[in-house]
Here is the input.
Amino acid sequence: MQIDLKNKNALVCGSTQGIGKASALALAQCGANVTLVARNEQRLMQVKDELPNLNGQTHQFLVADFQNPDALAEAVQKQLNSSTAFHILVNNTGGPPGGDVFGASLVEFENAFTQHLKCNHLLAQAVVPGMKAAGFGRIINVISTSVKQPLDGLGVSNTIRGAVANWSKTLANELGSFGITVNNVLPGATATERLSTIIANKAEKTGKSTDAISEAMKNSIPAKRFAEPCEVATAIAFLASDLASYINGINLPVDGGRTKSL
Here is the structure.
């Protein structure tokens, strides 16, 4: 089997680092035209220059802040008005800061709800008309294994990720008849800047070293290691392809077996 995304246009959010960047690289490697979305223009330019274009693809980027959903939607709509439709949407953005749920402020919940669910929804509303016209669409949300098993110390994230998962399943039911699939990829502990921050915070709270925290986390995973971002990106590329045309409305853990529930 070969993942072929030639002549497909992909919009990849949070694509200057971590899983977002790895996903953009993987989709471009499979032949897609990739539009990067993030708030740091310099890093966007750097990643754009790294994207392969073996099939003569055209890659672009949009500068947008996920704390400003209206401006994000406007930027994407402007792009749609000046070019062709997007066939693939990868909703991905940095997770909320860690901390227990009981002590979380309403502002923390509101910010996370805006950054994740609101932005995902506005982006889907922008790209779905073009997907319907093409008879092909892939919406892939990068969320967390916490939708199956809440993670200690990530109270706000657990809450918001669950909301996104249920939004996604509902959307999958509504759009399936148009050749559009909506799926969630649930990364486990992945070697990204976010994981480094989580480890550092745990070390500060417990007085243990970052190495000790890291090893304990690895030992809780059957694979005994962290994922590489490219391993998550491979799952995203598969779900974006024709090969996954009958996979819809699922939560796909890519976690080395860490999640204890089915």
The chain has two domains: 9-188+229-254, 192-226. The mean pLDDT is 95. The chain is about 45% helix and 15% strand.
